[in-house]
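Field notebook, page 364. I keep forgetting to write these up properly, so this time I am using the form the group agreed on. The chain and the ligand, adenosine-5'-triphosphate, are recorded exactly as supplied. Prediction of the bound pose follows.
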Amino acid sequence: MNAATGYLDPQGHQRLVPAEQIVRLEGVSKTFAGRHGAPVTALEGIDLAVPQGSVLGVIGRSGAGKSTLIRLVNGLEKPSSGRVIVDGADIAALPEAALRHARRSIGMIFQHFNLLSSRTAADNIALPLEVAGFDKAAIKSRVGELLALVGLSDKHNRYPAELSGGQKQRVGIARALATNPKVLLSDEATSALDPETTRSILDLLARINAELGLTILLITHEMAVIRSIAREVAVIEGGRIVEKGNVFDVFTRPQHEVTRSFLADETGRALPAYVASRIQPEAVAGGQAILRIGFRGPHATDPVLARLARDLDIEANILAGSVDEIAGRPCGILVIGVPEASLGPTLTFLKQYGLDTEVLGHVA
Ligand SMILES: Nc1ncnc2c1ncn2[C@@H]1O[C@H](COP(=O)(O)OP(=O)(O)OP(=O)(O)O)[C@@H](O)[C@H]1O
């Protein structure tokens, strides 16, 4: 029997998940023959485990290797070395017929939905059931259940062209779930959607994960997606996993430069334009140092800046700030400016509180 591991769900409830890993990549590398014969290494030395019932997000920039990784998991590509195990089967070693069967336990959703335009919503959802040889009555009843699950019972007769992006993705999700897969692969499933629709699709995926216990492996280039749905994250860059762990830890204490740059992108967007356009790496005498402070843990709600002013007589300008929730736990980010001459004492003071502080740059 498998041991069980615990995690806190987004509502903060303790949940148990079996330690069984539904997807496992062991020392996986993938090299493509490049255009002029020069090989292109898309992935190198990937070790990744997705425990049953979890939501694991893989984040990376364009060209990092995300699509290749997901294509290896559903058997569309074979690794150049290493093993890809899905639900106990070594995917690359399966003969074609067995691979087709194994794919029934892997559902997939796509950025551009990949629906057949000549089929209604119901008939798109029915497709994998037809391929799997279900009889008409069973298909009709299963499609009805799936339409209800994704909130589209009233749209069963609509063609994709008559549906919004969010509705199309709901059809895509229902189709992916038709054969009761054990794992759902999501390839940038919300990248073509507006923020509000993204939110509703992520909520639906979170509900499916919680209610059906479906394991989700998603790839994205958007931190907000990881933040709102994943419990575990792997950061991929240049074909390698450069950081992985629980989302809260990775995003509140990033260890790798790439993870920091994903965070900095967000912070950068939050900075007022007059600061963002003037920030530079070198200190300027008489100018200000710009600091990013991460609030988490026991000091998340301490009035630190008031104490900085009272105890050290250092006045900080607040430039940007937000309080967010990562995996159901509050976490705040504050960007402040302090006089260059006060930078040293400010850093020492913030360190005493155990706050993560990063110098973003300097302005004159
Ligand atoms: N079939 C292929 N033949 C040659 N090179 C490939 C092939 N597929 C991917 N690559 C290369 O492998 C690397 C990783 O590509 P991949 O598509 O996995 O990245 P990605 O992170 O999904 O990027 P994006 O977000 O832009 O889709 C890139 O350098 C890409 O050019």
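OBSERVATIONS:
- The CA atoms of residues 9 and 24 lie 22 Å apart.
- The radius of gyration is 24 Å.
FOLLOW-UP: compare against the apo run.
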